[in-house]
Amino acid sequence: MIGRLNHVAIVVPDLDQAASIYAELLGADVSAPLDLPEHGVTTVFIELPNTKIELLHPLGDDSPIATFLERNPGGAMHHVCYEVGDIMAARDKLTAAGARVIGDGEPIIGAHGNPVLFLHPKDFCGTLIELEQV
Ligand code: CO
Fold it and tell me: Is this structure's pTM higher than 0.90?
């Protein structure tokens, strides 16, 4: 059911410093920071040959990643995103098997303009999973 690894997201305390680590030390192609107020994050996209890395930093007063950064002040991996062809079919299969979707269960439009859902880390080996319909 799941396809390509679309991206790995890492929450960081300092976006400029993190972008510089990826650009200068690791030699990756790094975008300028992009504010996504509807998602409560500022993001830097890093294009790798086979996937992407997204550096995330809280934006605004009630960012969904603010608590995560408080608990992981030095930064930490936040989620992995797998591509699916049909997000509603994927959701129905997973919820029928007892897996929990975060929120009200309806897909939202993600940072790339595609429908996304998040799956509860306790049901997936301790890892928050984002499904993106591509
Ligand atoms: Co993501």
Answer: yes
